[in-house]
């Protein structure tokens, strides 16, 4: 029997469309994309790429926490960047949130992201 639950927390930005912050099916959590919005103000945290990257991981962590998980539970991470020259900075920021074994990951260059964010990430976690 499949156990499906919607994950919602005020510690991460509210969904700005027809989606959930995450869906948990049994012990797998499918996290929607997080952009660097401050969950309180719903505004971009900064124009600085590194600060945006930190906020994305904080938002992912908050959603996972609401699902009784942690960033270390992520098995697949997709990162979307409007400028692939920020790839090295992504690795530096990720190193502050993850340790080995690292999740499988893709870094994808895109033309534009919601609210003109420079970075977005979604993930799949197993808790």
Give the helices and strands, then pairings.
Elements: E1 4-7, E2 22-25, E3 28-34, H1 49-66, E4 74-81, H2 87-94, E5 104-109, E6 119-126
Parallel strand pairs: 4-5
Antiparallel strand pairs: 1-2, 2-3, 3-6, 4-6
Helix pairs in contact: 1-2
Describe the protein's architecture and organization.
The chain is an alpha+beta fold and 127 residues long. It contains two helices and six strands. It has helices at 49-66, 87-94, and strands at 4-7, 22-25, 28-34, 74-81, 104-109, 119-126. It has a six-stranded mixed sheet with strand order 1-2-3-6-4-5, covered by helices on one side. Helix 1 (49-66) crosses helix 2. The two termini are 18 Å apart. 31% of the residues are buried. The mean pLDDT is 97.
Largest sheet: 6 strands, mixed
What portion of residues belong to β-strands?
Answer: 25-35%
The outline comes out as globular
> Distance between the terminal alpha carbons, to the nearest Å?
18 Å
* Backbone CA Rg: 14 Å
* Largest sheet strand order: 1-2-3-6-4-5
Low-confidence stretches: none
- Count of discrete alpha- or pi-helical segments spanning 4 or more residues: 2
Give the helix proportion (percent range). Answer: 10-25%
Can you count the beta strands? 6
On the 0 to 100 scale, the average pLDDT is 97
Order of helices and strands: EEEHEHEE
Structural class designation: alpha+beta
Protein name: RidA family protein
Family: Belongs to the RutC family.
InterPro entries: RidA (IPR006056), RutC-like_sf (IPR035959), YjgF/YER057c/UK114 (IPR006175)
Organism: Sessilibacter corallicola
């Amino acid at each position: 029997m499949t156990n499906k639950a919607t994950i919602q927390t005020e510690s991460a930005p509210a969904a700005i469309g027809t989606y959930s912050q995450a869906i948990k099916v049994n012990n797998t959590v499918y996290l929607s994309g997080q952009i660097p919005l401050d969950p309180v103000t719903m505004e971009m945290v900064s124009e600085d790429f590194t600060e945006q990257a930190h906020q994305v991981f904080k938002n992912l962590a908050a959603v996972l926490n609401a699902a009784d998980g942690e960033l270390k539970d992520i098995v697949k991470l997709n990162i979307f960047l409007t400028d692939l020259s920020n790839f090295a900075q992504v690795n530096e920021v990720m190193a502050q949130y993850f340790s080995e074994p690292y999740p499988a990951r893709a870094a994808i260059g895109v033309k534009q992201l919601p609210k003109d964010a420079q970075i977005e990430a979604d993930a799949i976690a197993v808790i």
